[in-house]
Write a structure and sequence with these properties.
Length: 244
């Protein structure tokens, strides 16, 4: 069954807009866990525009007492970021090739260019006892390079799937993801996915067999505002339960 990991970045962004600890990312992590969520994700940026380093530490303390819930920290492998991860020791660290001024994640790693950085970082994470995942575009050739990187998992960037959902290109792009996931599994790499997945398109995406985790934040936060947390999380958990 696929696990749902909720990204708390947008909760932190709301908090930061008012200058006090409301809404609290720790309180919301507790709320999501109480509803059955099995993963919490954060993506601290260098400018701390949403999740701060202190948030990452506070969530680390919280989740250290909740062993059933996985903690995933995403980010570019700068030295400051890696030191943070080594201190917190989350379940998983997902390496993302983001520039400091990038609005949001919008592409996977170019492993022909960045293989040495990714290899060195995956080795460092595994030495620290942290599962190493890398953000990747859904391409079989990228997957075959990823098999040489030392990563434990790939997280497929699902923007193209979300954008093509219910369009003429939707089926062919879904097939592209199926092929990439299947090749990853053949090569012994576990699979995550995330970016603009939602209540409408996730059931179709999870017809792909072998996806262990989906990370959802921006759209899920909006859906919670529109429909209520309890309803939205219950729907996501049922979709994940019905996964291929």
């Amino acid at each position: 069954m696929t696990k749902l990991s909720v990204n708390l970045n947008k909760i932190a962004l709301l908090r930061n807009s008012r200058g006090r600890d409301f809404p609290s990312v720790v309180n919301f992590a507790n709320k999501f866990m109480a509803l059955g969520v099995e993963g919490i994700t954060v993506h601290p940026r260098q400018d701390e525009r949403h999740i701060t380093q202190q948030d990452a530490y506070d969530l680390g303390d919280l989740l250290a007492e909740n062993a059933a819930v996985e903690y995933n920290i995403e980010g570019y492998p700068s030295e400051d970021f890696l030191l943070l991860v080594e201190k917190i020791k989350p379940t998983q660290c997902t390496l993302v090739p983001d520039a400091p001024d990038q609005l949001t994640s919008d592409h996977g790693w170019d492993l022909q260019q960045d293989m040495q950085l990714v290899q060195d970082t995956c080795a460092r994470l595994k030495k620290a006892g942290v599962r190493a995942a890398i953000f990747l575009d859904p391409d079989v050739q990228h997957v075959e390079l990823a098999a040489k990187s030392g990563c434990d998992r790939v997280e497929f960037y699902t923007e193209s799937f979300a954008q093509s959902f219910n369009t003429e290109q939707g089926e062919s792009i879904l097939t592209q993801y199926k092929q990439a996931v299947a090749r990853a599994i053949e090569l012994g790499i576990e699979v995550n996915a995330g970016h603009d997945l939602d209540l409408q398109n996730l059931p179709t995406f999870l017809t792909i067999s072998g996806v262990l985790e989906v990370s959802i934040g921006h759209v899920l936060t909006i859906e919670c505002i529109e429909q209520g947390m309890q309803s939205v999380i219950a729907q996501y958990l049922q979709i994940c339960k019905n996964s291929a």
